[in-house]
Specification:
heterotrimer, A mainly alpha, B mainly alpha, C alpha/beta, A: mainly alpha, MetI-like fold, 13 helices, flat, B: mainly alpha, globular, disordered N terminus
Chain lengths: 302, 283, 428
């Protein structure tokens, strides 16, 4: 009897704290999730009532070469982008944590790119990557390297997308900086006295402390990279609103193809089926990460 | 006396600070370079924007681009609108996200895991499919054409930020919370007095993120705001894109003016979350 | 904690203020039916200089009559456009789109049919260029009007042609020879100058298809494998791609400056010739005043294919969910009138879509503009169909053209792939 009262009170407490999100979820999330699941089994163009077609959208997707191409492109981008984001995020945060003069300014400079509106960033990078007028190939040339045709050679478009996206990795770094504040300084000193080198200190002190944040970073980065849209969309287009998939569809990402189906072709049913496949894929990957994380994430409860 | 102090200090600076500042400066330089391109282009004449080989500095400095940018968009009005939307969103975020994060991290109830799951699921649905259903909901509520669709979601909690704050709260030792509970503190007092102060770096980080998102958001203001008088700065930037060509100089000038207020706020804000001072006192 | 309380008061005041603004706004939009002038919202995708020109025309219209008051909003994103039209109460009454998108939107009930309004407002639809009006028509009804059209002609750099001793080509064979002479390549294959560049592969290659007697929508269906289309692609491969090598071409194109900037590859002499639209005529004096250029009809493949050009259109439409359709139609009628259309097309450097305006001297001060104007009088003006499948078809063609230019497939194979894909296209 007493147990259930405590349990009920705890549940009420939890609900009270969660109330803002639950309200938002009920109003703005639950309906779109349900609606998109339903639409994925229909022929729906956004403007006329949907027609039930069963599994037809999913069957067509299986035979749609652009779908498979987009999926493969997205996986390649995610597989390179996530480790690089995390690696550069951790390394950069350590550098920005060094007590140097002008430290706040350096931090602001690294974070600055995330404040640049992404459309302007897209134009800026198309220019940076131009082989005649751009700085990237110019700098490579100073090193004696002939730069590639970034945006026209299919094998170089993905590095270009990764490069432009990593430009805004400052956000990841800032979160790691906040996490580094939680690393207990006394432990460092103790380890230093014990003669532990920087790598061993990182492995035994820093890494465990920042591991919950790393779990967060891995999951949100995987989700973000699987949904990557704006950077490839902007790099592939040659003029405003003039969408393209890049040479050999090498820049067509999953979200771009979904967007194209939803807003250019007005095939919302097809797009919803794509959304659900991505949703389930992301869910599966996230679950694998979460289960795997029990081995390496240390939280305050343990 | 001062000369002596100087000579004693210099080798020390050379040995420790300089050695450290080099990689930090290189890191910052790499990230800031495209921005520098933007900044200096804002001072270039139209014929000078592109050159082979590319040149960072203008051949001839001009302020015309800034004049044109001010001419093209009602900068101060848009700035006030943007500050309003961003400010309200930040307020919403710092009020609601820590609450929800706490419910998933430290309240011991059976809903904690499902709630975290729901937060994660929300992030996994591609925004392209939710755009129109969500618009229709706001339209049904009669809120299209007002700032509400841009502000209210922040008060309902942003999944990314809830999850982030949660991961910071998770590392708060349970003993601290237990001790407070045994002392008879209410759950809210435990939250407000024990957990919130420890999570402050995460919360201020969340505030900065929310601020920048609202600041740079283009699509939502465009979709939900009807009257150009309500527009935010990011929409104004589009007035430099023509059907076929781009007004590079004025665009870059406007973009510099667009980023500066946000940078200023970041510089002020970072003192509260990642400032040089030592780690959390409660550790 | 204190920071929060200190912040809150002005913010609450501001929120209350914004709510008041919102109320005032809804009050305004609802007042349309009560006798005074009707309010029409014109949401257009144009921005920048084009938007300024449109605002001027709106101001002129508002000053010229007292029945309708038009408010213009520059809204440069078609996601926003579609989203607004998805609700039952539209936020705008008139907007713009492009020609081959009409059928798709009309089939889905997004657009209001215009025939009755046009009759009431006395718009003579027979004056519109037939190829353009075809695009506006779906299932026997008119769903949009072309506010401006575009035709494609061959532009050439006079200086480069004279230096190389090349005469302005009139046949495809002469064009091929001119391209070979005007293309310069280093010993290692690096291209320094290309005979015929292409600012937009989709436009260039669909246009060339018509020039070779092809048809992209034979019988109202996607027909990418029509012999003329394949012939055009094969000509392009033989005379440009294979001439320089696909990889060299890609490398060269990666160094092109931004389109229509002072570093546009045609303006700086990287391209000796391009096939492009009339907007160049207004842009060149402003952006590349020193360029000595000329423009001529696209060379013909055989004598029955002289003066072939492709037409594309910028359109105006009234969405089905507009709240002030009748008033919007009045404004639409003004925009396509002699006065409205001349002002609009002139400001944007585009072509008028009405046959009777092709002979005005209103455009005389734009150098060489008449070449594009005259092209519209030809019986050989073709336009892509505006069927429900157009968007998907264009996207697939764009990808296929890209593959052909990269040398990764043959024209025949590429077009066959598009044809195979077309069975999945939307039919309504």
């Amino acid at each position: 009897m007493r147990m259930t009262t405590i349990r009920r009170r705890r549940a009420l407490t939890g609900l009270a704290f969660a109330a803002p999100f639950l309200m938002g979820f009920a109003i703005f999330i639950a309906y779109p999730i349900g609606a998109s699941a339903f639409y994925s089994f229909t022929d729906f163009n956004l403007f006329q009532s949907p027609d039930w077609v069963g599994l037809q959208n999913y069957e067509r997707l299986a035979q749609d070469s652009s779908f498979w191409k987009a999926l493969a492109n997205t996986f390649v981008l995610t597989a390179t982008g996530v480790p690089l984001s995390i690696g550069i995020g951790i390394a950069g945060a350590h550098l920005l944590n060094l007590p140097v003069r002008g430290q706040p300014l350096f931090r602001a400079l690294v974070y600055l790119p995330t404040i640049v509106p992404v459309v302007v960033g897209g134009y800026l990078w198309r220019w940076m990557l131009n082989s005649q007028y751009g700085f990237i190939n110019y700098f490579l040339g100073l090193l004696g390297i002939t730069g590639p045709g970034w945006l026209v050679q299919p094998e170089w478009t993905k590095p270009a997308i990764v490069l432009m996206t990593l430009w805004t990795v400052g956000g990841t770094m800032i979160i790691y900086l906040a996490a580094l504040k939680d690393v207990p300084g006394e432990l460092y000193e103790a380890a230093e006295i014990d003669g532990a080198g920087p790598f061993s200190r990182f492995l035994h002190i820093t890494w465990p402390t920042i591991s919950p944040v790393t779990l967060f970073q891995v999951i949100v980065n995987v989700i973000a990279w699987l949904q990557i849209f704006t950077q490839p969309y902007l790099l592939a287009q040659t003029r405003l609103n003039n969408a393209s998939s890049g040479p050999g569809e090498s820049m067509l990402t999953y979200a771009m193809y979904l967007f194209q189906n939803a807003f250019s072709f007005l095939k919302m049913g097809y797009a919803s089926a794509m959304a659900w496949i991505l949703f389930l894929l992301t869910l599966a990957v996230t679950l694998v990460i979460l289960i795997g994380s029990r081995r390496w994430v240390h939280d305050g409860a343990r | 006396m001062t000369a002596l102090a100087e000579s004693r200090r210099r080798p020390w600076i050379l040995r420790r600070r300089t050695r450290r500042i080099v990689p930090v400066a290189i890191l910052a330089a790499v990230f800031v370079f495209p921005f520098a391109v933007m900044l200096f282009t804002a001072f270039k004449t139209p014929g000078d924007v592109f050159s082979t080989p590319p040149a960072l500095l203008p051949r001839e400095w001009t302020l015309d681009n800034f004049a044109e940018a001010f001419d093209q968009i009602p900068f101060w009005r848009y700035l006030a609108n943007t500050l309003f939307v961003s400010g309200m969103s930040v307020l919403g975020t710092i009020v609601s996200c820590p609450l929800v994060a706490y419910a998933t991290a430290k309240v011991r109830w059976r809903g904690a895991r499902p709630l975290l799951g729901a937060v994660l699921l929300t992030m996994m649905l591609p925004p392209q499919v939710t755009l129109i259903p969500v618009f229709l909901i706001w339209n049904g509520l009669g809120a299209v054409g007002t700032y509400l669709p841009l502000i209210v979601p922040a008060f309902l909690g942003t999944p990314f930020l809830i999850f982030m704050i949660r991961q910071f709260m998770v590392s708060v030792p349970d003993e601290l919370i237990e001790a407070a509970r045994i002392d008879g503190a209410s759950e809210f007092r435990t939250y407000a007095q024990i957990v919130l102060p420890i999570a402050r770096p995460a919360i201020v980080t969340a505030a900065v993120f929310q601020f920048v998102w609202s600041w740079t958001d283009f699509l939502n203001p465009l979709i939900y705001l009807g009257d150009p008088d309500q527009y935010t700065l990011s929409i104004g930037l589009y007035s430099f894109f023509g059907e076929n060509d781009v007004a590079w100089g004025p665009l870059m000038a406007a973009c510099v003016m667009f980023t500066l207020p946000a940078v200023a706020i970041f510089l002020v804000g970072q003192r509260f979350f990642i400032g040089g001072v030592s780690a959390g006192a409660l550790k | 904690m204190t920071q929060v309380t200190r912040m809150r008061r002005p913010l609450v005041a501001a929120l209350a203020g914004s709510a008041a603004i919102a109320l005032a706004l809804t009050g305004c939009t609802n007042s349309g039916s009560t006798g005074g002038p009707e309010e029409v919202t014109f949401s257009y995708l144009w921005s920048g200089a084009e938007a300024d020109a449109i605002e001027q025309i709106i101001a002129d219209y508002n000053a010229s009559q007292s029945d309708v008051v038009v408010t213009g909003i520059s809204s440069p994103d078609f996601q926003k456009q579609l989203t607004s039209m998805s609700s039952s109460n539209g936020s705008f009454d008139i907007s713009d789109h492009f020609g081959n998108g009409v059928g798709s939107w009309a089939a889905k009930g997004i657009l209001a049919p215009l025939d009755d309004y046009l009759a009431a407002d006395g718009v003579d639809t027979s004056d519109f260029i037939p190829a353009a009006l075809d695009q506006m028509t779906y299932d026997g009804k008119i769903y949009s009007l072309p506010i401006a059209v575009h035709s494609f002609q061959l532009l050439y750099n006079k200086t480069l042609l004279e230096e190389a001793g090349v005469a302005v080509p009139t046949t495809m064979n002469e064009l091929a020879a001119a391209i070979a002479t005007l293309t310069k390549q280093d010993a290692d294959g690096t291209i320094t100058q290309l005979g015929l560049g292409d600012p937009s592969p989709s436009t260039t290659l669909t246009t060339l298809g018509y020039n070779f007697g092809g048809d992209w929508d034979a019988g109202g269906e996607p027909s990418p494998t029509e012999p003329g289309n394949i012939a055009a692609l094969q000509w392009y491969v033989d005379n440009i791609v294979d001439l320089v090598g696909p990889e060299n071409l890609a490398t060269f194109n990666s160094g092109n400056g931004e389109y229509m900037s002072a570093q546009d590859p045609f303006y700086v002499g990287r391209f000796a010739m391009v096939i492009d639209g009339e907007w160049r005529a207004a842009n060149i004096p402003a952006t590349a005043p020193d360029l000595d250029w000329g423009v001529t009809a696209i060379p013909y493949a055989s004598t029955d294919l002289e003066d072939v050009t492709q037409l594309t259109a910028s359109t105006l439409f009234i969405p089905a969910n507009a709240r002030h359709k009748e008033a919007a139609a009045k404004f639409l009628a003004y925009l396509v009138s002699d006065e409205g259309m001349t002002a609009f097309t002139k400001a944007l450097g585009n072509l008028p879509s009405r046959t009777s305006l092709l002979d005005t001297d209103a455009f005389a001060d734009i150098d060489q503009f008449d070449v594009w104007m005259d092209a519209l009088k030809s019986p050989n003006v073709f336009a892509l169909s505006s069927a429900p499948y157009s968007a998907e078809y264009s996207a697939d063609l764009g990808t296929a053209f890209g593959d052909v230019i990269l040398g990764s497939t043959t024209p025949q194979e590429a077009m066959q792939t598009v044809l195979d894909n077309s069975s999945n296209y939307a039919t309504e």
